[in-house]
Structure formats: structure tokens, C-alpha cells
Amino acid sequence: MKKSMNLSSLISFKNFISLIIFLLLSLDLDSLRASFLLEDTPVIISKSNSEFTRHGEKYFMINWYEGSSQKGENFAKTYWPPYAPQLELAYDEFEVKDPYNRVSQLYNDKVATGIVFYLKPHNYVHNKNAERIINDFPLEFFLRTYDIYDSEIIPLNVFPVHFQKYIDNDRVHWYFNDDVQKDNWNYANTKQAYDVLQEKSDKLKLSACIVGDYVKRYPYLINFVDILTPQIYPLHKKSDIYTDLEEFMPEFYRLSEFHFNAVVGKKYILDYNREHYSEKKYGVTLQAYHKNIKLGSTTARYPTYKEHRFMFYDSIVCGAKGINIYCHYRINKTSYQNLKRIIWEFRKSDFQKAILEGYHYPDLIDNDVLKINDDKNDHFGKLLWDVDYTAYDYKNTIFLIISNTSKNEISFPLKVNVNNTLDLFEVYLDGEYQLINQKIGNTKNEKIIELQPFEIKLIKILRKT
To answer: Which distant-in-sequence residues (6+ apart) come within 8 Å of 306 by Cβ?
Structure first.
């Protein structure tokens, strides 16, 4: 038995080392530098009927994080000095800190398909508050299934009595994992928590963990989730070298790292699905919070509108079929309004429908024109193609998202691999909520596309009928 265990450990260790070596060797491969060189990721199929979902149909997941504490309990945690109590109140014109009101705002503004609920699984008050919100709003809900004590995740060892009522509720799913901060989130504890959930119900499970963590330290985590949504938060910096981060933190700081990590996540999902004949889904968790209240905090500021827009659409370029927005009481009014506009633009322009229902068109653009000027000095220290894109053919129109993933201004000729002459339209918002479809040329004559650093362009290519 001892020999067998040692052999098993050796094999497991060898597999882990092989994974790390593979990832290190693959950093310079084109497939990790450009999403369009990879196949598409699978869409999410709904198991429920709710505001934005129909059972058995495709949907684009947009979840917002929320806590279940009433009357701003988290604001009173003064031992979290960067957060409370100085933060602006969340969302539009709020004068109370009740999460029920925030969820009501999200629902009325139609910016959420679901809520990721932070709660203590065995806490009566937390679950009672969550139950009220779940009953009142026809959204998807992902309930946190672990506790945290002293930054240590405590996995389930028994199914919470408060979750029994949701076993047959197809709008309620399990939020299986978050930041892995200590090594007790090992394979044995992870499998134990998974088995506890599976024994009671076959629910959709969701994980949100940093790319580096699940690839390098916890490669087994993907075995236990249906949707993997890595956190990629670029606006982090130790602030002890600055006196005013609002002034010194440059726009687009570390967004090259964002893109690189998102491509790594996509490739990881695709490789796993291919190897295991699986259909794991891929999303990205976006930063919409800020904790630079005083010197020493690790996040410098809220993302700007352009940064929000880049991260949202670049996630989609990199294969994300869903977005988690990490915020709850830490978001400010400006960030909320920015994200609200971006989500409205995404849906109103039909890009969401094209991504869900259209035919993926990975070889639309002549790839040679996209190798413009590899930036060897980006913050992450990795080579990236300056331009990445994704395209979908839907209802006689090609929907094209182009992403400048570099800090350079870029111009390139848009050479489209189509036989007939097609009209080109750029889609953008003019003002708050006015969608513009501006004709910019056709595919017969070369169209020069100009991109500012980390700019996103939405382009429709209309077939003539």
C-alpha cells in the first residue's frame, strides 16, 4: 500500500510539473498571444426561466456580486480600513446601504442576469435576507457555499439546512469557490465540498479564482466546476511609492496583462474540454471596485469608462461567454453608470445575439495585417499581438469586435476574407444612450482602421440583399 501511495503521489507530482512546464513553454506560442488563433468557447445554456433566460436556450451571463447583510453591515467593518466607511454609496442616488435596494436597482435597470451572493451558508440571518431577494426578483442566483475565517476558506462538510428549499429551484445555483488564500483549499477538501453538493442536487456550479492560482497551484479545481470565471483585476499597485495614486496611476495601467491572462484562461478551458470531452464554460470576473481610501491600499482607483469598455469587450474577444462584475457596496455611481451604458450598447447593437446565435468567424481578417508591432516592454513582460478580434456571422451581418491590446496608437488596413463587396459600419454610443451605426466604407476598397491605445471598435459588415 505504501509503495502504491508513493507511486500515485509521484505520478500526480509529475503531472503537475508537466502542466507547469507546458504552460511556461507555451507562453511564446501564437495561440497564447492572440485569441482569434483559437477556436470558440461553448456558450452557457440556461436551466431556468427568468428575466433574461429560457430553459434550454443560450444566454450571456452578466452577474453582479452582492452581499446578504442588511443595513450596510459591511460598512461598519472598520478593521477593513480601505473600505469603510468612506466609500461612496453604491449605484444611483442611494441613501441606504441595503442590498435589497441595490438588487432592485440592478433588476430595474436590466443590467444583470444574475447575482453572486456572498453569504455564510449556515447563517440564519444571511440566508433569510437572501431568500427575500431570491423570491422577489426573477434572476439567476449563485449562493456562496463556503465560509471564510481569518482569510481561510472553509469548504462544506454538510449540506446547509438553509439550502434545502432551493434544491428544486432551477434559478438557484452554487458558487463553489473564490480567492484561494490558504492551502486548506486542497484536492481533498474541494472534492468533499463538491460531493456534498452533488449528493443533494445537480446544480450549475461557478468558480471565480485568479488565473495564476488555478493554473499553477490548483489545476484540479476545474474538475469540480461548470463555469470558470477567473478574476483579472489590472488596477492593483502597492501605493507606498506614491502620495496621490489618483494623479499618478496612468490610464490603461496593466491592461496588456488583462488581455494576456484572458487568452491564457481561454486556452486552458479549450485544452481541458478537448482532453476530457467536456464542455466547461468560460467567463471573466471584472474589477468594478476601488479601495484606495488611504495610503497603503493595493487597488489604486476605479476603472475609467474606457478601461471598463476595454475589459468588457476584450473578455468577449478572448472567448468569455459571461461576465461577473465584482463590486457590491464598493462600486461608485460613475462606475455603475459606465457599466450600465456598456451593457446597454452590447445588447442594443445585437452583438450579444450574434455571439450567442451566430457562426464563429475566426479567419475573417487577413492575419498578416495584425502583426503590427509586438510590444516587448509591456507591463506583464510577455509578447502580445497588438490587435486581437472576434467575429460572428449572424442574420446576413458579420459582427466584428476589434481590440487594441497595446499602449500604442495603431493603424492597419482592414482586409476581410470575403468574396463579395460588403458595407462596413462602425457602431458606437453618442451621448448616454444613442446608438450610432456609421458607414465607414466597404470591403472592396481597403479601409484603414485607426485605434487608440486599448481601444475597442465594434464593426458590422452588412451583406447586400
So the answer is: 251, 252, 454, 455
**Cell numbers describing residue 319:** 472567448
The 10 Å CB-count burial string (b at 16+, else e) for 396-434 is: ebbbbbbbbbbbeebebebbbeeeeebbbbbbebeeeee
Backbone angles phi, psi at 62, to 5 degrees: -130, 100
CATH code reported for the domain at 44-348: 3.20.20.60
Residue ranges of the chain whose pLDDT lies below 50: 1-31, 70-96, 238-246, 293-299, 375-382
Output the pLDDT for position 32.
Answer: 54
> Are 111 and 340 contacting, i.e. CB atoms less than 8 angstroms apart?
yes
Instruction: Please tell me the distance from the alpha carbon of residue 327 to that of residue 2, in angstroms, as a whole number.
Output: 49
Which residues belong to CATH 2.60.40.1180 in the chain?
A: 359-462
CA atoms of 425 and 397, how far apart (whole Å):
10
Residue 117, amino acid: F
Cβ atoms < 10 Å from Cβ of 274: 10
Nearest to 136 by CA among 177, 98, 167: 98
Q: What integer pLDDT is reported at residue 431 of this predicted model?
A: 79
Distance CA 268, CA 265 (A): 5
Delimiting residues of CATH 3.20.20.60 domain(s) in the chain? 44-348
pLDDT of residue 373: 56
C-alpha cell at position 288: 468594478
Cα 334 to Cα 305: distance, rounded to the nearest angstrom: 9
The architecture in CATH of the region 359-462 reads Sandwich (2.60)
Cα 189 from Cα 182, distance rounded (Å): 12
Rounded Cα distance between 250 and 361, Å, is 35
Query: From the CA atom positions of the chain, what is the Rg in Å?
Result: 22
Contact 365, 317 (CB under 8 A): no
Name the 3-class secondary structure at 183: coil
Quote the pLDDT of residue 406: 85
C-alpha cell at 262: 484572458
- Sorted by sequence, the CB contacts under 8 Å of residue 376 that are 6+ apart come out as 383
The pLDDT value recorded for residue 69 is 57
175-184 burial, b for 16+ CB within 10 Å, e for fewer? bbbbebeeee
Q: Which residues contact 7 (CB under 8 A, 6 or more apart)?
A: none
Considering only the C-alpha atoms of the chain, give the largest distance between any 2 of them, rounded to a whole number of Å. 72
Q: How far apart are CA 283 and CA 211, in angstroms?
A: 12
pLDDT of residue 90: 42
